[in-house]
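Take a sample.
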Amino acid sequence: MRNCLIILIFFCHFSAYCKQEVWHIKDLLKKLERSSDIRFSYEENLLGDITVQVTRSQLEDLSILIPYLQASLGLRFEQVNEVYYIIRPFGTGDRIDICGLVQDEKGQAIPGVLINGDETEYSAVSDQDGYFTIKNVPFSMSFSLRHLGFNLRRSSAQELLDPSCNRLTLIESVGFLETLTVKDYLAVGIMKENNQVKIYPSEIKILPGHTEPDLMQSIQLSPGVNSPFETASGIHVRGGSPDQNLVLWNGIRTYNQGHFFGMLSAFNPYTTDEVTFIKSGTNAQYGERVSSVIDIRTTEKVPEKITGGLGFNLLHTDGNIHVPIFKDKLSVQLSGRRSYNDLIETPTYNSYAERVFQNTKIAENASNQQANNQFFFHDFNTNVNYHTGSGYSLRFSSLFDNNSLQFVTSNDSTGERFTDQLNTKNEGYNFTLKKQDKRPLSFLLSGQYSKYLLSYAFNSLVDDTLDIATKKNFIHDYGLHFNSRYAFENNHSIQLGYEYSYKQIRYAFEQESPTYSLVLDAADNHLNTHSLYAEYQLDYGQNSYLQFGTRLNYYQELDKYYAEPRLYIEQQVVNRWFITASGEYRTQAVSQIRESVISDLSLENKVWTLASTDGFPLTTSYQVSAGTIFDKHNFYAEAEAYYRDISGITTLTFGFLNPIGNDFSVGSSSIKGFDLFIKKQFTGYKTWLSYSYIYSLNEFTGLNENKPFPGNWNIEHTVKWSHFYSLDKVQFSLGWLWHTGKAYTEVVEETGQQGPVIVAFDGINTQKLPVYHRLDASVVYDLQHKSNDRIKYRVGLSVLNIYNRQNQLNREYRTTPSLENRLIETNIYALGITPNLVFRMFW
């Protein structure tokens, strides 16, 4: 009886504590002023005769009551100091925190819902309980909620202001497509929306064989993407070459995307907010290249507090910091990274160095006590974000990366000294003005400058005579871009824009001695390009998605016009089964050529060149594709077939060495392929499996009797199988990569009775290297110190090529340049077993 009485008393007290009471707002404010020793300032006619319902628990806690009143009244309670509050209407410049609980019509939580603001930086994904939150968003912003199988829903920031988190119901779609959005598409933190793959490095938990979210390595998980030399930056997308990829960093066109001769990405993932990767149906706003688009963006948000991080692995150390200067207005973000192998060489560095320097004089002199190799890389980025508070924002960005190598061999007894000096630098700046307050009209105006330098010098000091051989490649790239978008209320939108670019590209191969100076080869070209584009988008939540546009380019010095149509379509056929189709035509004026004029070091032997009327031709490409998608009950599958044709390629741009050497010939490449991708998700465990088939044929005038032959980078069959498992604060990842060997040209050696070796080649690229496969694994552990919950720590271990298979990447042949020459077979092998460790702290 006594226990029942206690329970009854507690129940009555709790009911009274949670019971809502009706208050006139002005009376409530007076009570708060008396009880909490605070003051409210407001215009008399602003509050009128408003009543609110509050509980006793809310009355006793201002941190709960003030946000509740702000959401209930739709008025801003601006705290001036510890005592005074100003009550006023919300303005367009005000920032608020929003949250919500997404559910279906039966009240069940919907995880994986994509919440997108009018500006792409304000986005979130609902968790397993259907909950999401976004901080510091403009009060006037509207949001769209998307999830496969449900109708599109739109909401305003004001509706989502309630601190108790309003419930948002999505209606299940029947019969037609909603915009395809796939969470954890290739890995955790990678999403697919329509034809675009979105990579969010801050959300990437782990990648197979990598403890850090390398941006270029993340892209290689996509079907149809290969890296024949297993580098991060050497990405071949659907038969295209790396120089045919448009890689942007905050609007800056980049010409070098790798550190350590391509083995690592040159972009710091910890300052990157979003990466957009497109391999078909490219938006009309993107020009300049004929293959994929990799658009890297840092955050435009102004943080509430200082954020950043520090860390190191067994190759480099890095740090970044983002500092708010004026609240909600101005912030500065800085980041830097540097290798430290010039101070200490780790086992990981030695493994990478063995892979990079094989078949070079550096490897040949590895045991030479009088040889010294000094190599390092570093990069530095700056971002300044400024928000005016009236829907306008300004951004300044700068990018710098550098790779430096100096290799010296000497002979103390003879006084001979040989020095190889190699530097690659990429530098860029961008300034952007953006207007995107609220629909329907938004625009962007930006200017960019990019500079690239490749400098190689070989100094030979013999008998007090200095001979110098140099290779230099310079790029100056100026650009101006205007983009406007008008969004209609019925889910239609139109995008219009103009882009101007000026490029100057020059290269020179020279030899100099005390008695002569010789230019072996040189070129200096410039090109002005004017582009207009227009694009129409239809995006119905329960109907189709259509993207159609065209881009008109005028290459001034070539006096040529090119129209580039672009198309992408999605449509649902029956419940959870979709079809897609795309088509595009694109042109490209820049390309890389493989040189062997000065290649003593055998590193960085590609230089950029520019199309001209009497030199290299303009590259053109068209691609068509069709596919299907099925998504149901945590199972996702997609298949796509495509055909590409690339014209205006040369034997130098496609990197031929055998059997034609430096002979110049113009031709084309045709590629047909098929991609299959399957994803299955369980509780805590996800697995991805992809298969790609690519077959490319090259055809060049005057080569191989004008008959087509397999492409240099032809890897017909590729299988990628990845796994992810999460257990509390520990994440595991395992990945297996298998593909058929790259094509190569075999030779038959015949030695004449007198004179040099006579070499006869088999059919071009008719042979294949052995099958390639490797197994990679990673594990990371996240922890947090109880004394300071703002600082988080991460430790991780990764292993590439666990079973240490010797994979062959390439085979080429050359003869020595002498009368008593001999045939040399050059083989390049992949990384052996390569462990790596990482430690990071975030705040």
The CA atoms of residues 38 and 81 lie 10 Å apart. The first helix runs from residue 2 to 18.
